[in-house]
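Kindly go through the entry underneath: sequence plus fold tokens. Please state briefly how this chain folds according to its tokens.
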Amino acid sequence: MKETKRLGDKGENYTISYLRSIGYEIVEVNYWCRYGEIDIVALDRNDGRSKLVFVEVKARKTIFFGMPEESIARDKRVHMMKTIMHYLDNHNLIGSDIRVDVVGIQLNSFDEVEDLRHYRDVELF
């Protein structure tokens, strides 16, 4: 398995555990369509109403090239938006209350979480 894939899987697993610990319900993991992938689709009912949350996970072992969450390029954001629209359309959820969150994870040399940053309601553009 490629190191980037292994690192991504680790980051997603840590994020799923974290999101569950703060009350999110995981709906789907690694939703794929022709436009791209959404790492995690979850429901957040913490503020008294349900909100469908699309979560992008970025994990790194070094911050030499910047923080993990800073690596979401414009092309990736375009693909995320198209993928979200595809998901909403395919699940008859157009018009639903949605949000995009980003989770940045810094792992140490033992693949343990050194730092986890959760950004809620991130604007893609």
